[in-house]
TrEMBL record:
Matching InterPro entries: PH-like_dom_sf, SH2_dom_sf
Name of the protein this chain belongs to: SH2 domain-containing protein
Length: 280
């Protein structure tokens, strides 16, 4: 994947050079119309099937920290698995450290990535769709988990790595009290932005080119799964998963895009625990 520095972003991106037309904000808004942009790294996400708004602050903080630890360490703790079984959290998705830019404007938070000279949208959320966020430090690195509700109604905790954590938290807090524009109004102005497709190769549980039998040997418990590339059909991606003692199945992905993982429903889902590849 092409690496892009913050200076390259500001030099080449129409989002930065022409924010009024790109973002749809009036220049006389109390906060700079283009918002503040941070160079961050997107680490992954955890689907959250149920709202956490009815929980107290301590419980919300704990859930977000748990999501951050799970995504960053690529490991589901016993507590995470218990919440998974209770349908409180969805299967986690860890990706390679994807160099990303996070823009926080007065009515919207957006993740986007520069690829082949084009701005690709990773995710866009109205700020009133952010129900909670929390910072956490792991091995002297700073992470933020943002619990958001996507336009299709699904909640997820997006985990990012960032250096200017205090500055970002202040920016998020500064927009909390503002009145928000109707979603439809902004959405109509932003339809031209192209969504970025997360590729399956980015997943921590992508094991490269692998035979089905070799994939099965890496799965220990029912619900374990991994993603692999078929050695017999170049370009075809397969999920291999375990359903019982010495019982394995496989399924071909219809396209090279991890958005299918965001559609997971924990109930009756056979893909419970992604097995991280050894070199991740």
């Amino acid at each position: 994947m092409k690496k892009t520095s913050p200076s390259d972003f500001y030099a080449n991106s129409s989002l930065a050079n022409n924010p009024a037309s790109s973002w749809g904000y009036k220049p006389d808004n109390p906060i700079n119309s283009s918002g503040d942009t941070f160079a961050v790294r997107f680490m992954g996400l955890v689907p959250i099937p149920r709202t956490i708004r009815n929980r107290n602050i301590e419980e919300r903080d704990h859930i977000v920290r748990l999501c951050i630890n799970t995504v960053v360490n690529c490991h589901a703790s016993n507590e995470f698995r218990q919440l998974l079984a209770q349908e409180e959290l969805g299967p986690y998705i860890s990706v390679n450290k994807l160099e990303t830019f996070l823009n926080v404007a007065n009515f919207m938070t957006s993740f986007f990535h520069i690829d082949d000279g084009r701005s690709r949208l990773l995710g866009r959320y109205m700020n009133n769709q952010i129900s909670h966020y929390k910072a956490s430090e792991i091995d002297n690195r700073h992470y933020i988990g943002l619990v958001m509700k996507s336009p299709n109604g699904k909640r997820e905790c997006n985990v990012i790595m960032i250096d200017a954590v205090d500055e970002l938290l202040r920016k998020l807090q500064s927009v909390d009290a503002l009145n928000h524009s109707p979603i439809a109004t902004l959405g109509a102005r932003l339809k031209s932005t192209q969504d970025y497709d997360f590729k399956l190769e980015m997943l921590a549980c992508f094991h490269g080119v692998l035979e089905h039998s070799a994939a099965c040997s890496r799965l220990r418990n029912s619900g374990d799964f991994l993603v692999r590339s078929s050695p017999n059909q170049p370009g075809v991606f397969v999920a291999t998963y375990k359903i019982g003692p010495n019982q394995f199945e496989k399924a071909i992905f219809p396209e090279n895009n991890i958005n299918i993982f965001k559609q997971f429903q924990v109930r009756n889902c056979v893909l419970k625990r992604p097995i991280v590849r050894p070199d991740f």
